[in-house]
Amino acid sequence: GGGNAATNACDMAIGIGCSVTILEVNQERIAYLRKQYATEEVNIIESNTENLERTIKEADLFISTILIPGSRPPKIVKEYMVQSMKPGSVIVDIAIDQGGTVETIDHYTTHDNPVFIKHDVIHYAVPNMPGATPRTSTMA
């Protein structure tokens, strides 16, 4: 998704020199994001199965930022997609609080033990991620 969590992650990634791809379903939001990041190395594309498969296969880090207020998000990242990722790549599922969007995340992790590995991919699935830095996240 291309909402607030995605744009904040994008800004951080740009700041350290990463190439970024944002997948978004809403055409108006895509147009807005393309204007917002017109001068940056950010690829904003329509979120569909084909684009997701291609993007996740190439990603070193994939952050799922889907939020559907009042609903559980769909499990859009299928196990076969995770299996196609490069060994050592990372998936962060920000939607884990609402049930998550990644099929291979079958349990929560904690701030004390934040990751597990499945299919040679590092999975981060900590609910309430801002809880790690409550003072800073409250100010934001």
State the distance separating the first and last CA atoms: 20 Å
Total strand segments: 6
Low-confidence stretches: none
Order of SSEs = HEHEHEHEEEH
Rg is 15 Å
Largest sheet: 4 strands, mixed
| Beta-strand content | 15-25%
Mean pLDDT: 90
Class by SSE composition: alpha/beta
Helix content range of the residues, please? 25-40%
Shape: globular
Count of domain modules: 2
H/I helix tally: 5
**Biggest sheet, strands in spatial order?**
3-4-6-5
Question: Any overview of this molecule?
Answer:
This protein has five helices and six strands, in the order αβαβαβαβββα. It is α/β, with parallel strands linked by helices and 140 residues long. It folds into two domains: 1-47, no CATH class; 68-129, no CATH class. The strands form two sheets. It has a four-stranded mixed sheet, with no helix packed on it. The chain starts with a helix and ends with a helix. The model has no long low-confidence stretch (mean pLDDT 90).
